[in-house]
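G., the chain you wanted modeled:
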Amino acid sequence: MKRYRSYRLSLGWQILIGLVIGVVFGVIFYKNNTAITAMQNIGTMFINLIQMIVLPIVVSCLTVGIASMGDIKKLGRVGLKTIIYFELMTTIAIALGMIVANVLHPGTLIDIHSLHGSDISQYMATAKTAEHTGIWGTLMGIIPTNIFKSLANGDMMPVIFFSVFFGLGIAAIGEKGQILNAVAEVMFKVTNWVMHVAPIGVCALIGVALAEMGIGALIPLGYFVAIAYVTMTVFILVIMGIVAKIFGFSIFDLLLVIKDEIVLAFSTASSEAVLPKMIEKMDKFGTSQGIVSFVIPTGYTFNLDGSAIYQSIAALFLAQAYHINLSIGQQITLLVVLMITSKGMAGVPGASFVVLLATISTIGVPVTGLTFIAGIDRIVDMGRTAVNVVGNSLATVVIGKSEKEFDEEKSKKYIASFKKHGVPERAE
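Predicted structure as tokens:
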């Protein structure tokens, strides 16, 4: 009897279908409170599932990865390289956004008084809290006084700090501390189960965003949104492409491998949704587990390239809309302020918007101006989240190659399996 191989859509295609259905639902159920509540709850449940597994994976993988390094001098070197790389890339992203905004002048085409404002009170409250902490408060907050409290609150940097020391402790006692290897494997299995419901979560999250906002909200600010997306695309293909070329690989190979994660990050506007799979994939891509486990979680706080692009374009867009002419010196000051605030407030809810709240006052833009772009923030957030994910995956390869901890043969086989089958060969 002849056996037929059943055809099954890849996760990426399933998510895309969920995205399209979500758009349809958003249009059909515009301002329908019952449907909005249902989609909001379903989307929230999916994000909660992701958040449930993120910290256990970060703790187990980072601890195992640091233990495999086993050398605090090496860890210090990797950490310094990583932070310098992150700072360089985010600075380039901010500068690119400012150049584009200066050339294309998106704000001059807008009558700011004809736009409808949105409620930004939740961001205002977050910004006030962040202002009280400042950069020193952020640095102090990296060291946890109670690791279980940090885990409960989902505070990534204190968890990373503790996991680094825990991993070094495991390296010091040898094989007796290797039980977390099994924990990491279990969490990756759970991640695969959770990813099965990703298309449903994506459908709900996109549906509720459009049902609340409506397609019409995009029209007045369509030029601004288009410029933001084109700039982000240029940053990936040109800037990241050049960096990849310098380190001896193709950005397109990397994009091929993480395409499903890019679609998922874009659809959910949540970097956390792809963190578990990114750690797994970049390990298979060829970078050593220790580098991957350290760079990716750290990048979620310090390497937000997409957010940096959006913040710089949005700041100049609002200045132009209010007819505020900024000198070169003022724009350089804006760049420096964005470099600092984007690191000091990363990780808080609505971080990109909070950074703008803390920044625009330095260039004379009224805070009320942000109410006019708050409505389309979710749409831009999808793009900047996808760029952040690509930036963090690129960082793992760059740091791995710089440390000579990148397996070229393993990488070539993994990429070839994607080119041949569209998905990697199933591990036995």
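The mean pLDDT is 81.

Shout if anything looks off.
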